[in-house]
Amino acid sequence: MNPSLRLYAFVPFVCALVGCATPRKPPAITLDEVVQAQPLPEPAKPVEVVAVPEPLPLPGQLKPAPVLDVPAVVPEPADERVRVSLANEEARVAPTREGYVNAIQVWPFTEGALYQVYASPGRVTVISLQPGEELMTVAAGDTVRWIVGDTSSGAGDELRVNVLVKPVRSGLKTNLVITTSRRTYLIELTSTDKAWMASISWDYPRDRMLALQRQAQTAQSAVPVETGLSLERIRFRYAIGGSNP
Questions:
Q1: What is the pTM of this model?
Q2: In Å, how far are 61, 79, 165, 180, 187 from 176, measured between CA atoms?
Q3: Domains of the chain, CATH where assigned
Q4: Taking 60 as the threshold, does the pLDDT of residue 9 lie above it?
């Protein structure tokens, strides 16, 4: 090959290498202002409602059950009045020592239960409803020998209706029906000389469960798809610095 041609071919190759090694300057653009990142508050975690686990029997606990005499099936009474009496007897809920908070008997509310309330002449028994519950009607079976009234305590969301009952003498029995904006209370009243309940109220497990479920649904719906993402605040015009950017 001619030396002059070899030299001409080498010169473009060297120029190409020099051109590749020369860094290109980025175009002059207006940079965005630096914005300090701010941590966002953590969203409320949804309440998880779970069932209480039941303990499983261990192998050492698997023992044969003792043989018990199976009671004979009692036939249904033929008299309807007897069946009604048995149903009412099974629905009665009596006061318990464990259910007292100071002088207040607290029962867990159950639909259709017959709550037993004992009153005494010359003393007033207070029947407190749930805060925020609106009283509709109060009906007593005996309005001649039982004095029934109502009042309220608290204010706002804590406004509470109190039904007041008092017998005129001992040895009386009647029933009391209280209807509200949320439920119906069935109460059996008994007057005695000494046994006297100062105040009664109820606990509402179902309402607490529903409140937890609503809280979980609200927290779940409030969780954003992408925390802190805003198209108007997205920035791309930044300069990269350093010894070898």
A1: 0.61
A2: 49, 26, 10, 13, 5
A3: 88-206 (2.60.40)
A4: no
